[in-house]
Specification:
single chain, 380 residues, alpha/beta, Rossmann fold, OB fold (Dihydrolipoamide Acetyltransferase, E2P), 10 helices, 27% helix
Length: 380
């Protein structure tokens, strides 16, 4: 990937960009193998982007800087110095092109960027998300307060009128002066509050605060791989923990007649449930907005397969213990942190063996990657 910002030492977010893409994959495979030294990973060929890294990311998170006469998009470095960055080559087509439009509108409606040094101003971040297989955009403005909310509502109306591909505009309130990108309150400023993702014949709806993988080409292959495992092992009941908007659940439901997804975020569960009418599911599929640990404590039904897709911190001991009590034939672990995956497997390997491991290069040219590990109960 050709990146002016990396070459000029302006941005090093893609810290491996000075290496060939093939070399970055080998480095990730090596790291994973070292973390699982002494275990046979049954490592499949890694799934990557090869020469398609440009325009692969469907989300842009940009900090704001400037005043009423000059607004800039970019990021803050580790010393809290602002660096302008408005043409990242990773962003999907359309995201960078929208920035000049937003800049003009923000100045027109006098929505002033927040100053870290002076602790003044309103707009802290802009977060853009583009739907997969569609051109719909979701635009979020992170504000310090409601001072500019009325002006932002008028600006949102202008945006969706002039640019119909902008489907959702929201204001997120983050009043505190600290390094937290967004707050708890989200105010939808448009008639629509979701955009639609499509992966072949699977449809997923995404709300403003819903988690979703940032590289959809890789994400679709990740979900499909888990779905194939469910089909291959003829799973009849499937539990999807930390299910988000239901991606793994809907891919599993292609062959599994009984699917349940559990996720703490109520917004994500609303999105998962709203996708039911869009997908052809012949069996039973349901979603519950519950804390995963509390849900497992009260679970009185056994599932043949349990999939976990936890945050970077991985699973805690209590969750692992309760999963093992379930004795599922299959455990499918989707991990964005190989270190916590290795740690968690050490608590499972006395009852489960690895039958398949695969790297999905969700974060090209960085040290991060997604791993899908499939474990089979040793007495299955």
């Amino acid at each position: 990937m050709d990146c002016h910002w990396f070459k000029t030492n302006h941005c090093h977010s893609c810290e491996l960009l000075d290496r060939s893409y093939a070399e970055t994959i080998l480095l990730k495979e090596k790291k994973l193998s070292e973390l699982f030294a002494g275990h046979h990973l049954f490592l499949k060929e890694s799934v990557g982007l090869n020469d398609k890294v440009e325009n692969s990311r469907n989300k842009a998170k940009l900090a704001m800087f400037g005043d009423s006469s000059d607004i800039q998009f970019g990021f803050y470095d580790s010393q809290l110095n602002f660096k302008k960055l408005e043409e990242c080559p990773l962003h999907m087509e359309g995201l960078n092109n929208l920035l000049p439009v937003l800049k003009t509108k923000l100045m027109e409606y006098k929505i002033i960027p927040y100053s870290l040094t002076e602790k003044k101003g309103e707009l802290k971040y802009v977060i853009l998300s583009k739907s997969q297989s569609h051109h719909d955009l979701l635009v979020r403005f992170v504000l310090r307060s409601k001072e500019s909310l009325d002006r932002l509502k008028k600006m949102a109306a202008d945006l969706v009128t002039e640019f119909p591909f902008i489907k959702v505009v929201t204001a997120n309130l983050q009043p505190e002066h600290k390094a937290v990108m967004e707050g708890d309150e989200e105010i939808v400023l448009t008639s629509e509050d979701k955009i639609l993702h499509q992966f072949d014949d699977v449809f997923l709806t995404l709300g403003p605060r819903s988690f979703f993988q940032v590289t959809p080409e890789i994400a679709g292959k990740l979900y499909a791989s888990a779905g194939r495992a469910v089909e291959e092992y003829k799973v009849k009941s499937f539990l999807d923990l930390f299910c988000g908007v239901g991606a793994f659940s809907y891919f599993a439901a292609k062959s599994c007649p009984d699917v349940l997804g559990v996720e703490l975020s109520k917004e994500a569960i609303v999105c998962a449930q709203s996708s039911q009418k869009l997908n052809k599911v012949s069996g039973k599929i349901a979603f519950e907005a519950l804390d995963v640990e509390a849900f497992l404590k009260n679970l009185d039904k056994n599932f043949e397969a349990i999939l976990v897709n936890p945050p970077r911190r991985g699973l805690n001991k209590s969750i692992i213990k309760d999963i093992l009590v379930q004795k599922p034939k299959l455990i499918i672990y989707s991990s964005c942190n190989a270190e916590t995956l290795s740690r968690d497997f050490s608590d499972m390997n006395h009852e489960y063996k690895i039958v398949s491991t695969q790297i999905f290069d969700m974060f090209p040219y960085t040290e991060h990657f997604e791993t899908l590990m499939i474990m089979l109960r040793t007495d299955a």
